[in-house]
Specification:
Keywords: Cytoplasm, Endosome. It is found in: Cytoplasm; Endosome. Its main location: cytoplasm. It comes from Apatococcus fuscideae. With about 850 residues, the protein is an all-alpha fold. Helix content is about 65%, strand content about 0%. The chain is built from 26 helices and 3 strands. It has a 3-stranded antiparallel β-sheet, covered by helices on one side.
Length: about 850
């Protein structure tokens, strides 16, 4: 049979318009756009409160809604100051007392609202506990759990929201009432546990302790109800119920304790325990009328149980044990099975409400926390970086791990660092294969340059032959300048480039001969081959130190491996610090924090403590390892004679340096030759373009001249035909007797037979038919300055020597009168050109002008560039 338990009624409230005041506050203190962004959250909060005060739905649904609303209030608390003060949100909350429903309280405080919501959460949990079927094992467990959760909620309310409610503070949400309700829920949870243990038939000693703890909890509740302000607020039935429960479970504890002593054949002590139980039951009988029937039944059951056990124990003691009855017995110690469950749903950091509303105080606090985190991370990263730099510097100064690698056959550690880098660079560029490729490129460029020069020469010869054939055909009528006079400077350039190619070819053959001669030497210029030519570091035949060389080497290798592992750990620690910082978003917690943020900062910064400890441990371990490595490397150098071996390696590396120097000399000269041919090729291509333009112009000129001659021949034939017609007309006039032998003269501007005019043909001169020479002198070339121009349309003029010089300066004048288009500007003062600029050769018979462009050179085995490739004139 189970006893009646007490449940707490929920507080009731009036409706409140949350949305409008909060909307106005956001619009006024932030911006209308932020108010629009928060509109949905405002609607959600309003709906949550309306549902909370409706007190409808299942217990689970009510709890879920009330918990969500409480978290929403926590998000609002740090964003919206609710009070009667100016510039605050003026919004009042009205709630009615849970124990005296007619008492009404109104506060302009969000803490008051939170306290009332917490009270209702605890109340719903008590009602949910009452609804469990405690006659089943599952039901009694669920009931005990609900009461423990309710105790945790009331305890949380007592320590947080209840303390921040302003006076006059309602009694039902005062800290005193919250504490009393917490103890009441613990007492009822302990009572449920006792019922379960009785069902499980646990031993009497355990049951006595459990029952005593129920008495202790109810006793604490009774004392709270007897003190202000609760003594004047709660109904007498509460006090009577708690008082009866306390005495009943105290008496039941003594009965169970008596059972325990009876089983141990301690009848006298059992009788003393039962007398105490009967005394408590007699006192309970006086107050039983103020409580319900179930407690009266519980009292009757305990009285019958105590009387029965007392009679049996007294009979046994009088007839068997004859023991003296003690006046008092040791008190019973309680065994608590009930502990309040701290709410785990109060954290509002997971809520995303009002994200756009961030007060200045929160922004400043966040900036302060971010600065503290940045400082912490920077200090740890600086420690890790300093440790890495220290290890790298010390190992390099000790020549580690190179001095250990010198023990391995074919190791490059014996090579001086500068020589090793030069050999690495040589291998990266291909070694002797690189020289072979350079030689092949030079040959290809020389071949292409020669082919291009041959093409220019062939084109000029073809043009000169065509001009000669036309000159022979038309004799003195072919009046344009001859090709030989116009192409002399082009042919001089071709001759100069061919001379340069010939000189460069000689230098190429000498370089290729040297490459062939030293190819085998160059093939051996590798790190592996060079290392094989140096002496090898070996262990001494006789040990002179305290430690064996093999032990020293093993210790050094082990130390280096440990340093490498520590370096990898530092990389992981750096990444861990950065990741921890990247995901450290304290703003939601900061917005949900209702007190000073400093305690929150201290709590949040503690999550970096494990990483800080690992950083300190890593740095400390490395410092110790470096000290051990320093001692071991000193012993290693002494045991193996490392310094003497290093000197021998430096001496042996001299021959390798000589071979490398020869390779570099050949490579640089080939590179210079490659640049020479590339520059020469550019100049030849420009010459090809110039020759092509010249040939095209000559072809157009030839066609125009031939057209002019054809027109002149046609005009001459026409004039002769007209003259014959006139003669025939005169003869006809004479035969007709007109006399005079002359045709009648025309009057005015008219003429019986005007001379025909062909577009583009010159008008006939009054003196008769012009000669070809006159046509060429007067029509094909423009008249000189001051010469009269003929009237009427003019035939297109053929380009003269002057126009050719203007449009094609490369070949427009005789050599020596115009600068070469390839003459490079003089180099800056104090610097020598990497490659000699192209320069036109001086006219024949004329010495080059002083101060001309210097000719460059590149060195090969002590020769100047002019000695290898000769002076190259363009």
């Amino acid at each position: 049979m189970v006893n009646m338990l007490l449940g707490v009624h929920c507080k009731k409230s009036d409706k409140v318009d949350l949305r409008t005041p909060l909307w106005n506050y956001i619009s006024h203190n932030y911006s209308p756009s932020q108010a629009h962004e928060a509109a949905e959250d405002l609607t959600t909060v309003q709906a949550q409160r309306d549902e909370v005060i409706s007190l409808t739905g299942s217990y689970a649904a009510q709890l879920d809604c009330e918990r969500k609303y409480f978290r929403s209030l926590s998000m609002m608390e740090s964003r919206f100051p609710i009070s009667k003060d100016d510039h605050h949100v003026s919004m009042s909350f009205t709630w009615y007392d849970a124990f005296r429903p007619t008492k009404r309280s109104e506060h302009y405080s969000i803490h008051f609202e939170k306290a009332c919501v917490l009270f209702n959460i605890g109340a719903v949990l008590t009602q949910q506990g009452l609804g469990c079927n405690r006659e089943t094992e599952t039901g009694v467990k669920e009931a005990a759990k609900n009461f423990r959760e309710a105790a945790g909620v009331f305890g949380y309310m007592r320590d947080t929201a209840a303390l921040r409610v302003e006076h006059p503070r309602p009694v039902d949400i005062s800290p005193e009432c919250a504490g009393m309700l917490e103890r009441l829920c613990l007492a009822q949870s302990q009572e449920c546990s006792y019922e379960k243990f009785c069902t499980d038939r646990k031993d009497a000693k355990t049951l006595a302790k459990l029952a005593k703890q129920v008495n202790i909890f109810y006793g604490e509740v009774l004392r709270s109800l007897g003190m202000p302000p609760l003594n004047a607020h709660f109904d007498r039935s509460w006090t009577a119920h708690v008082s009866v429960k306390a005495m009943l479970y105290d008496a039941e504890a003594w009965i169970q304790q008596g059972v325990c002593h009876g089983k141990e054949t301690e009848a006298n002590i059992q009788i003393a325990c039962l007398r105490e139980a009967q005394r408590l039951l007699a006192a309970t009988r006086k107050e039983i009328k103020q409580v319900g029937k179930d407690l009266a039944d519980h009292l009757k059951r305990l009285e019958d149980w105590a009387a029965k056990d007392y009679a049996a124990a007294e009979k046994d003691n009088n007839s068997v044990y004859l023991q003296r009855i003690p006046q008092s017995v040791d008190p019973i110690a309680g065994l608590s099975m009930a502990k309040g469950i701290i709410p785990d749903w109060t954290d509002a950091t997971s809520e995303g409400m009002f994200a756009s509303v961030i007060p200045d105080s929160s922004a400043k606090a966040l900036s302060k926390y971010t600065s503290a985190v940045d400082t912490l991370i920077r200090e740890q990263l600086d420690s890790l970086t300093h440790a890495s730099d220290e290890a790298r510097f010390k190992l390099r100064s000790w020549e580690l791990p190179d001095c250990l690698q010198a023990l391995d056959a074919g190791s490059s550690a014996a090579l001086p660092e500068v020589l090793r880098k030069e050999l690495e660079d040589l291998e990266d560029h291909g070694g002797v294969r690189h020289l072979t490729d350079l030689a092949a490129q030079i040959r290809d460029l020389r071949k292409v340059a020669q082919e291009e020069l041959d093409t220019v020469t062939a084109d000029l010869d073809k043009e000169a032959k065509e001009d000669g054939d036309l000159r022979d055909k038309f004799t003195n009528r072919w009046t344009r300048p001859s090709s030989a006079a116009l192409t002399s400077h082009l042919r001089e350039k071709v001759a100069g480039y061919e001379a340069n190619l010939k000189a460069a070819g000689e230098s190429d053959r000498r370089l290729e001969a040297r490459l062939t001669e030293h190819s085998r030497t160059f093939s051996g210029l590798s790190i592996q081959s060079a290392a094989a030519q140096l002496p090898r570091l070996q262990a001494p035949m006789v040990v002179t130190g305290d430690l064996e060389p093999a032990v020293v080497v093993a210790d050094l290798r082990k130390g280096l491996e440990s340093i490498s592992r520590l370096s990898s750990e530092r990389a992981q620690l750096e990444e861990g610090l950065k990741q921890e910082k990247s995901k450290d978003n304290i703003l939601p917690k900061l917005m949900a924090c209702s007190g000073s943020p400093d305690s929150l900062f201290d709590q949040e910064l503690k999550k970096y403590d494990p990483l800080k400890a690992k950083v300190a441990e890593n740095v400390g371990r490395q410092h110790s390892l470096l000290n051990d490595i320093q001692k071991n490397q000193a012993a290693y150098r002494q045991a193996f004679g490392y310094d003497q071996w290093k000197q021998a390696c430096d001496a042996a590396a001299g021959g390798i340096r000589g071979k490398l120097g020869l390779y570099i000399e050949v490579r640089d000269n080939m590179s210079e030759g490659l640049r020479f041919y590339m520059s020469l090729q550019e100049a030849i291509q420009a010459l090809q373009q110039q020759a092509g333009d010249y040939i095209l112009t000559r072809k157009l000129e030839s066609e125009e001249l031939m057209d002019a001659m054809r027109r002149a021949t046609s005009d001459e034939a026409r004039r002769q035909s007209e003259a014959a017609a006139r003669q025939r007309a005169q003869a006809s006039f004479a035969d007709m007797g007109l006399g005079g032998g002359r045709p009648p003269q025309a009057t005015g501007a008219s003429q019986s037979y005007p001379p025909p005019y062909l577009g583009g043909s010159p008008a006939p001169s009054p003196g008769g038919t012009p000669s070809y020479s006159a046509m060429a002198q007067g029509s094909n070339y423009p008249p000189g300055p001051g010469a009269p121009r003929p009237n009427g349309p003019q035939a297109p003029a053929f380009p003269t020597q002057q126009t050719i010089s203007q449009h094609y300066p490369g070949y427009g004048g005789p050599p020596g009168q115009s600068p070469s288009p390839y003459s490079a500007p003089p180099p800056a003062q104090g610097s020598a050109p990497a490659y000699p600029p192209w320069a036109a050769p001086p006219p024949q018979g004329q010495a080059p002008a002083s101060g001309g462009t210097p000719h460059g050179s590149f060195a090969l085995s002590g020769r100047s560039r002019s000695q290898m490739y000769g002076e190259i004139h363009f």
